[in-house]
Amino acid sequence: MIRFRPLWPLAAVMALIAVPLLPLAATSQAPKPGGVLVTSPLSATPSLSPHEESTIATVQQASPCFNNLVYYDPTKKQESVDTIIPELAEKWSWQDGHRNLVFLLRRDVKWHDGKPFTSADVKYTFDMVRAAPDAKGRLKVNPRKLWYENIEAIEAPDPYTVVFRLKKPQPALLPMLASGYSPVYPAHVPLAEFKNKCIGTGPFKLKENKPGEYVEYVKNPDYFVKGRPYLDGIKFVIIRDRSTQIAAVQSGQLDVAGSGWNRTNAEDAKKGAPKLVVMEADSNVNDNVLINFKKAPFSDRRVRRAIDLALDRKGYLVGPRQGAATFGGALLPKPAGVWGLPTAEVAKLPGMGDPTKQKAEARKLLAEAGFGPSNPLKFTLSTRALSIYVDTASWMVDQLQQVGIEATLEQIETGVWHPKMTRLEYQVALNLTGVGIDDPDAQLFENYRCGSQRNFSGYCSEEIDRLMVEQSQTLDRAKRLALVNEIDRKLQADGARPILGWGKQHWVAWPHVKGWALHENSIYNVSRRQDVWLDK
Amino acid sequence: MKIYIFKRLIIAGVTLLGMSMLIFVLMRLAPGNITDIIFESAGYVDEADRHRLEAELGIDKPVAVQYMVWLGNFVRGDLGKSYRYELPAWEVIKPRLPVTLELAVLALGFSVLLGVPTGVMSATRRGHPVDYVLRVFSLAGLSMPSFWLGMIVILLLVRSLGWIPSMTYVSPFENLGANLFQFLLPALAVGYRSSALIMRITRSAMLEVLREDYIRTAWAKGQRETQVVWRHAFKNASLPVITLIGIEFAFLIGGLIVTETVFNLPGVARYLVDAIQGRDYPIVQNLAMLIAVVVVTANLIVDLLYTWLDPRIKYGQA
Fold first, then answer.
1. Which of A261, A484, B137, B175 is 20 to 30 A away from residue B229, measured at CA?
2. What distance in Å separates the CA atoms of residue A187 and residue A179, rounded to the nearest whole number?
3. Which of A354, A297, A303, A358 is nearest to A495 (CA)?
4. Between the CA of residue B251 and those of A163, A304, A448, B304, what are the distances in Å?
5. Among A239, A416, A454, A457, which would you mutate to test the B interface (most chain B Cβ atoms within 10 Å of its Cβ)?
6. DSSP-based three-state secondary structure for B36
7. Residues of chain B neighbouring A422 (CB-CB closer than 8 A)
8. ipTM of the complex model
């Protein structure tokens, strides 16, 4: 029988490192203006155009330049519709039974080049993102077109009013507009310029962008929020090597670091520089297993369930995730998440029970499907050639072997990972998915709807599609949650895309860094950094 | 001599042409292209958009056609545009050249200053404890990868002094002192390995020459050690050393990927790897050509130096 170490030491470590988080998150000191904050993002950004990218690297490095109509309050740890605050919109209101979303815009906003911001910019941006036939711009790639497909028209009746007219009610539109992926672009600046430059309305103006080296911002003196930003500037230095990143923060060359770090990285940094403050929070990034529904024998539900049961989730927690993960279904579980399954139900999901019993059940299901010691199930387990993927996939190979499945690990070069997944050119794969906003519309439609470009497993259920649409239009939050939970249960029962767990984010900062906020149910919507200041 | 140089230039041209074809084809044999990479960062693939982009970039045409277009532009001095940054390729490559060049020159300078005297010393004191110590020192240099040494140095510095070299590039025109300080450690880390190689080649070449009759004659004439060793022996032993220095320089221009990564220096080698991963064909093609030009030129210079070091060598004569 496999025995696991008790988890209480991990809990103790988590408690210890959570305590120093307090001085950064909440401080009673009066903020001091000035200073330049230096940090290192996940990687170099392919462009400064968040609408054309799906990487946190772009959100981190472009957000200080832009504003949204609305944004998530950085001081609230959990994002929800209740924590949405105004940015370029002063006020908003739902009208006609959530068919029209009306925004009244600020009148004191200027673009970084001095031109005034108006409703034409909002219409230009979101007509472009939803690929409206009469849109004045066209995005080279448009990863979030799906978010806005329910918009029938965007109207700008006067320079400071915008109306989003919807085909059907969709309360999730407001959270989507609050995402770090939803900034407003200037209609007068050619889209191609955002490859290397940035003209926004945000708290910081681009000083210099040396692609692959650094992105540097200076304070926008004309920022419409008086007294913000506190910092004179932010510099994002690209440091590819993780050990060098750690050394750079220890030596004080970086004020804060940690994008893409695991717990060990943060602990290592602190060991070398004990004054560093470690921050840990949930992240809404999950490790998920893609089982190709279009390829036999994975179309057999018993085979999918056997794979799901073979993967012991507690082993995943102490193994590849080093104690830093939570468990759940298709949506981030509570307390960090808003829409996840109740804790009692999560405990009953495949892989969560006694590993010996679960593995025995997996063997039984495989036998029923015609696989056994004389005829083992063999397949290639594909994953992206990045250590954070490969570590978990290697662990999976071992787990699967314990139920008689012979899985061969295939590492796919990162540049062709998504194309291969989109074309379903794999059998079983280990994937990571970061969820832009903690809202069922974003997560479910993107990853589970029949024919969605990001539905990498090829899963398709008419019933689920119908329920997805129903929850999307449900205005009562409790009723919507019940529907979402129902969908989640069905997805887990179908083995649509088994979730191994939800990873955590780890950051380290010097004590002089104040107001560096983290959100626990998304990493994408908290990078404006106008409230960050340095206590130097 | 002029005929020899002319012939070498012709051969260099043919070599570069062959290289350009090889790089062009190899890059396109690798799975995926720039459109895959663009959609990779977008997290999905839209086939219609992908085909549109391929047509925009001209990579939907047959490879032979793409090559001819590139060659025509290259001959006219048009290096094309970076697919990823949408900037002229030369504009992207130019700021990275001085970084790698400075690192290579400093590392090579250090390796020559360390490797040649220690190699000579080791040879002239063969069997002496100094010889053993120097050989162990050089063996250690050969055994330790320079990036590993660099990483260890960084870790030691941060642990003991709480300091490491600047993580953003400081131009020598901006602050020469800070620039040299930034390049000192990577140059030492890379130069140590090269110096070990130079030391070993110098030693073996010197040992061979020191056995020659004319050296014995020089000793018999009562010449001073420095004169015998440096004027008579080393000059004749230096041919393989010069060859090695030439090869090392060419290697350093394109082979410092990990060192540039560890010390976060925005040089050519690190960028070449990024460009390969990003399938940024114009950048890869031009950078690889640049490295090829350096290799060919370094070899030509080494060959020409032979005639100066050893007057017996006459090129272009039967």
1. B137
2. 20
3. A303
4. 61, 51, 50, 19
5. A416
6. helix
7. 44-45
8. 0.86
